[in-house]
Structure prediction request, 112 residues.
Amino acid sequence: MTGNEIGKITLDSAFDVHQELGSGLPENVYEVVWRLSLLQRGLSVEWQLPVTIRYRGMTFDEAFRGDRVVQEKLVAHKRQTYLGLTGCKPGFLLNFGEALMKCGITVSEWTR
Prediction:
């Protein structure tokens, strides 16, 4: 499955969860329901996966944790600036707190 296909399924799932639950709930409510929705759509999902960073020949294991890793290709993280360090494409920043889900999506394509 390509990154774009995974991204489409991921966003479709986010829209469905947001439409059913609405906005304004605690983040962990969306995480639990969204994770189940992704699993039901046949995607593998990992939460708080350690991300290794390489800098000037040095390796830092578990420099930070990716909030959500879907199919080992896509990372949704609270802070968009971290997405480039993962090497995953595309990367999404999702904010379920927006009144309209489409206003809560930022897509990042990284060249690494």
Q: What stands out?
A: The chain has one domain: 3-108. Residues 3-108 form one domain. DSSP finds three helices and five strands in the chain.
